[in-house]
Amino acid sequence: MRNTAIYPGTFDPITFGHIDVIKKSLKIFDKVVVAAAENINKDYLFTIDERVEIIKDSLFKDLKLSRNRILVIPFNTLTINLCKKYKANVIIRGLRAVSDFEYEFQLAGMNKKLNEKIETIFMMSDVENQIISSKFVKEIARLDGKIDRFLTKSIVKKLKNKLE
After folding, report:
1. Active site annotation includes 134
2. Is 133 a catalytic residue?
3. Which pTM value belongs to this model?
């Protein structure tokens, strides 16, 4: 196996933008660990267990991606600790806009200070998905807008059910 990469995020819920980053990561890495963060300081719509289930349903049932190359896990530790546990030397971070870069740059710098062997790679989703954010998708859904251009079928259904 060449490499394993960790793709951490809240994924509340996972969108086509996230999925683009995962697909691009699979072109570079043999295995991608999609790690759903459980941060006690953040308010989530879906529980950690629901988010892990949603990610799995989206990737494996809706899109039929390889379970052999993608591992979906919850986590509540430092990302560099996940890297050690899964023998990954790369953290994948998705960028949507320039406004994301400053935070992501600082985060990558802190991770590098914590473990100099870990590299961070920034990836952008395809142009049509760069504007998608979980926050906006939830707001559109709350206002009864059409969200099927942003999420896979199973997630659209789960999000609508959650908001009823």
Report:
1. yes
2. no
3. 0.93
Catalytic residue among 18, 93, 138, 158: 18
Please indicate whether residue 25 is annotated as part of the active site.
no
Sketch out the chain's domains with CATH numbers.
Answer: 4-163 (3.40.50.620)
Contact 6, 88 (CB under 8 A): yes
Cα–Cα distance, 52 to 74 (Å, whole number): 7
Check: CB of residue 3 under 8 Å from CB of residue 89.
yes
Residues 45-73 pLDDT 10s: 999 999 999 999 999 999 999 999 999 99
Beta carbons of 149 and 159 less than 8 angstroms apart: no
Which residue matches tokens 């509540």? 76
CB 37 within 8 A of CB 77: no
Q: Using alpha carbons only, how large is the chain's radius of gyration in Å? A: 15
Residue 2 burial class via C-beta count within 10 angstroms: exposed 0-12, middle 13-18, buried 19 and up: exposed
